[in-house]
Design brief:
The chain has 224 residues and is α+β, with helices and mostly antiparallel strands. It contains 5 helices and 6 strands; from the N terminus they run H-H-H-H-E-E-E-E-H-E-E. The strands form 2 sheets. A 4-stranded antiparallel β-sheet has the order 1-2-6-5.
Length: 224
């Protein structure tokens, strides 16, 4: 029997925190320690990427996206095996499966899909929160978009010239993972955060935008 997205989400909600003979206090301590370890590990990864890119934010964002893409491509096989998910019939179905099931399964992240366009080729994925990715995280001001005066004194407009810098997309790895997973099942997309509480208004939260580009047919290494 084919399993719908709703069935898979319900099963995950029942199995993410299975019963345990351990006391509740020990479970909370273990969960907290794991979350803090993940936060520190991911933070160290982002810092190393910035160091490797010599603090070039746009390049660091692209590097995080590439890393996430590789992770998404690898996780898709495990995802399909555990959920028995069949081929989706539309981009909306694919997006709902990736967001509502995939993020819940691997990261225990809860989200909703909203703001679908009329053609159902674009939507926003709003996360309740991105812990443990963003727990205790504060992005330094030098990694936030701002207008900076150009240092090129030879330019005719040197005194008034300004360059728009990119925000550090701290969780861009998640966008890459979603893009890689969808691409592995034949759905090519663009994915980026349009609202990021770490570099923008904290009240706006975290919103990822998924945009459908094209369906990609399986390529066979031989001719019929």
């Amino acid at each position: 029997m084919w399993r719908t997205t709703e069935n898979v989400v319900r099963d995950l909600n029942e199995t993410v925190c299975p019963p345990s003979p351990l006391s509740l206090s020990s479970i909370r301590v273990s969960s907290s320690q794991n979350a803090e370890l993940f936060t520190l590990t991911y933070g160290a990864l982002v810092r190393q990427v910035l160091h490797d890119c010599e603090d070039r934010v746009a390049e660091a964002n692209a590097r995080l996206d590439e890393m996430g893409h590789a992770i998404g491509c690898r996780l898709i096989e495990e995802f399909l095996a555990k959920t028995n998910t069949t081929r989706c019939g539309s981009f909306r179905e694919s997006a709902e499966t990736a967001a509502l099931v995939g993020f819940k399964m691997f990261l225990n992240l809860e989200c909703v899909l909203e703001n679908w366009n009329a053609e159902e080729t674009q939507c926003d994925v709003r996360f309740a929160n991105l812990d443990p990715f963003t727990a205790f995280v504060e992005v330094p001001s030098r990694y936030k978009a701002s207008l900076v005066k150009s240092s090129d004194k030879s330019s005719d407009a040197a005194n008034d010239a300004a360059v728009q810098r990119d925000d550090l997309r701290y969780c861009q790895l998640l966008c890459g993972a979603a893009r890689g997973a969808l691409e592995s099942v034949g759905v090519r997309t663009e994915c980026s955060f349009v609202k990021d509480a770490l570099v923008g208004d904290p009240d706006e939260g975290f919103v990822m935008r998924l945009t459908f580009l094209e369906n990609v047919e399986d390529e066979y290494p031989f001719e019929d």
